């Protein structure tokens, strides 16, 4: 079983809809949680960075972390065709344990005009 | 965030040859990393590039195959040695600007081996 599980999609939604993405993980040592967006032929771009449990909002993006359930989510409101990309969740343990990021497999999202 | 430049952006190489990939950052960073992203897959950490000392490799990756240098706080290289078609991947450099910041990535080097 992978340490981080993420549905590969593709997830197809109409423009303006809410996109809901999630990852589950098994390592209880993970405390830092990230979401990256990756366009074709580009590197991953950091969208959200959260520590421990709770919610964080940045514009149209909301990240949620539920450590008790080992479950993280990313919501994209008012989705646009430009949001079509692969979304990667990533997580890491405290810095003292190293800086290694463990990634989910990525979810392809397609927002249709 | 730091601006990360990778060279080359892509290359097509012959089996058995080696290629060195460069990663240049526009400011000093604490940590530099090298990842591999195989076609249709997610990212796997190859190694942490340590300034002034040998890189720290993850399980399944060895120095003879992936020698890494980091001569200063803004530059690192990854060499893919004795390449085979299985090495066809995207190789990505990432950096941590400071200890409490997340990693940021370059656009990667797309490598194809014939």
Summarize the structure.
With 113 residues, chain A is mainly β. Chain A has no helices and eleven strands.
Supply the key terms.
heterodimer; A: 113 residues; mainly beta; five-stranded antiparallel sheet; 54% strand; B: 114 residues; Immunoglobulin-like; four-stranded antiparallel sheet; 51% strand
CATH class category of chain B: Mainly Beta
What is the gyration radius of chain A calculated from CA atoms? 14 Å
CATH architecture of chain A: Sandwich
Largest sheet of chain A: 6 strands, mixed
What is the mean predicted local confidence, pLDDT of chain B? 94
- Helix-strand string of chain B: EEEEEEEEEEE
Specify Rg of chain B, calculated over alpha carbons: 13 Å
Kindly, what is the distance between the CA atoms of the first and last residues of chain B, rounded to a whole number of angstroms?
36 Å
Shape estimate of chain B = globular
Average pLDDT metric of chain A = 93
Strand residues, percent of chain A: over 45%
Question: What's the story with the biggest beta sheet of chain B?
Answer: 7 strands, mixed
Q: Largest interface by residue count?
A: A-B, 21 and 24 residues
Q: Provide the CATH topology of chain A.
A: Immunoglobulin-like
- Tell the overall outline of chain A: globular
Give a verbal description of the structure.
The complex is a heterodimer of chains A (113) and B (114). Chain A has no helices and eleven strands. Chain A is mainly β and 113 residues long. Chain A is globular, with a radius of gyration of 14 Å. Chain A has one domain: Immunoglobulins (Immunoglobulin-like, Sandwich), CATH 2.60.40.10. The model of chain A has no long low-confidence stretch (mean pLDDT 93). In chain A, strands 2, 4, 5, 9, 10 and 11 form a six-stranded mixed sheet that branches. In chain A, strands 1-3-8-7-6 form a five-stranded antiparallel sheet, with no helix packed on it. With 114 residues, chain B is an all-beta fold. Chain B has no helices and eleven strands. Helices cover 0% and strands 51% of the residues of chain B. In chain B, a hairpin with a 2-residue loop joins strand 7 (68-72) and strand 8. In chain B, 35% of the residues are buried. In chain B, the strands form two sheets. In chain B, strands 2, 4, 5, 6, 9, 10 and 11 form a seven-stranded mixed sheet that branches. A four-stranded antiparallel sheet of chain B has the order 1-3-8-7, with no helix packed on it. Chain B has one domain (15-83, 90-113): Immunoglobulin-like. Chain B is globular. Classes of the chains: A mainly beta (113), B mainly beta (114). Chain A binds chain B through residues 32, 34, 36, 41-46, 49, 88, 90, 95, 98-101, 103-106, and chain B through 1, 4, 31, 33, 41-45, 48, 58, 92, 94, 96, 99-100, 102-108, 110.
């Amino acid at each position: 079983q992978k340490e981080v599980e993420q549905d590969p999609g593709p997830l197809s939604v109409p423009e303006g809809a809410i996109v809901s993405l999630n990852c589950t993980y098994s390592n209880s040592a993970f405390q830092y949680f990230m979401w990256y967006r990756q366009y074709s032929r580009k590197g991953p771009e950091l969208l959200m960075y959260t520590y421990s449990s709770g919610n964080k909002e940045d514009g149209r993006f909301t990240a949620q972390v539920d450590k008790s359930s080992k479950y993280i989510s990313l919501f994209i409101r008012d989705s646009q065709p430009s949001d079509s990309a692969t979304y990667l969740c990533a997580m890491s343990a405290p810095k003292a344990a190293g800086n290694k990021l463990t990634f989910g497999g990525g979810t392809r999202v397609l927002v249709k005009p | 965030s730091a601006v990360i430049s990778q060279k080359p952006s892509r290359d097509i190489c012959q089996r058995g040859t080696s290629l060195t990939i460069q990663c240049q950052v526009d400011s000093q960073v604490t940590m530099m990393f090298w990842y591999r992203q195989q076609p249709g897959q997610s990212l796997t950490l190859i190694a942490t590039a340590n300034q002034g000392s040998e890189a720290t490799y993850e399980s399944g990756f060895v120095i003879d195959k992936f020698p890494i240098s980091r001569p200063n706080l803004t530059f690192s290289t990854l060499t893919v040695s004795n390449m085979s078609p299985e090495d066809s991947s995207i190789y990505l450099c990432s950096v941590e600007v400071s200890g409490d910041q997340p990693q940021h990535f370059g656009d990667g080097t797309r490598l194809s081996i014939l």
